[in-house]
Amino acid sequence: SPALSIHQAVKTYSNGFTALKGVSFSVQSGEFFGLLGPNGAGKTTLISAMAGLSRLTSGHISICGHDVQREPNITRKLLGVVPQELVFDPFFSVREALLFQSGYFGLHKNDEWIDEIITNLGLADKANTNTRNLSGGMKRRVMVALALVHRPPVIVLDEPTAGVDVELRQNLWQFITRLNKAGHTIILTTHYLEEAQSLCNRIAMLKHGEIVALDSTENLLHAE
Ligand code: ADP
Ligand code: ADP
């Protein structure tokens, strides 16, 4: 089954606004997939539904063949989401935050993988620093690290480079590309076409809650 399958996703918020108007697409295992769209297109709404953080009004989403609504305990383990906001416990050091997150997934011998994440994300110097004392860019790295703790096969990044400096952006892309080559499915939202172009093998364009284009990056660009 596909890494991600979205079937006729509709989301109408309680104020009556419909942010997703019947979105359908699938992402195959191993793809580096871009979800492009301007602000307000519905990208975050869709990610929130994938993560099981909000319910669709109608339609279905499954991760590796498991329905997000019916099997949340399974899909939670299959998915790693890097949200836009920086949210973590301000009293933990970087390493403590990662260990705590491991415990949440029932992983108690995870130190080697945690070391690998810390090193690959350039956090080694900050491993024992309290997360609250980190710069914005470093906090962003911690958010990526937290999403990877349970080695999810499918990784979703919501505008990970928004407001991020050039060095971190390149560092982040190298690491994510490496994860993709190691077999992880990557789904990235962005409103930068160039970013999706250079990284993604397939791109969906979301506008006003609808998919308006979906093709290989090559075909989409030649159609311009
Ligand atoms: P749901 O329909 O999924 O129950 P709600 O409409 O109750 O969601 O809103 C959930 C949260 O989103 C609320 O805390 C609300 O303040 C916030 N919210 C409301 N309008 C917007 C908006 N236009 N953009 C982002 N967040 C919003
Ligand atoms: P994107 O991530 O592509 O910028 P969002 O999914 O955040 O788009 O928002 C899509 C639309 O839904 C926007 O018009 C936004 O104002 C609206 N929206 C988001 N959350 C809520 C909410 N809780 N209640 C009402 N409207 C919302």
From TrEMBL:
<keyword id="KW-0547">Nucleotide-binding</keyword>
<keyword id="KW-0067">ATP-binding</keyword>
<keyword id="KW-0472">Membrane</keyword>
<keyword id="KW-0813">Transport</keyword>
<dbReference type="GO" id="GO:0005524">
    <property type="term" value="F:ATP binding"/>
</dbReference>
<protein>
    <submittedName>
        <fullName>ABC transporter ATP-binding protein</fullName>
    </submittedName>
</protein>
<dbReference type="GO" id="GO:0016887">
    <property type="term" value="F:ATP hydrolysis activity"/>
</dbReference>
<keyword id="KW-1003">Cell membrane</keyword>
<feature type="domain" description="ABC transporter">
    <location>
        <begin position="4"/>
        <end position="224"/>
    </location>
</feature>
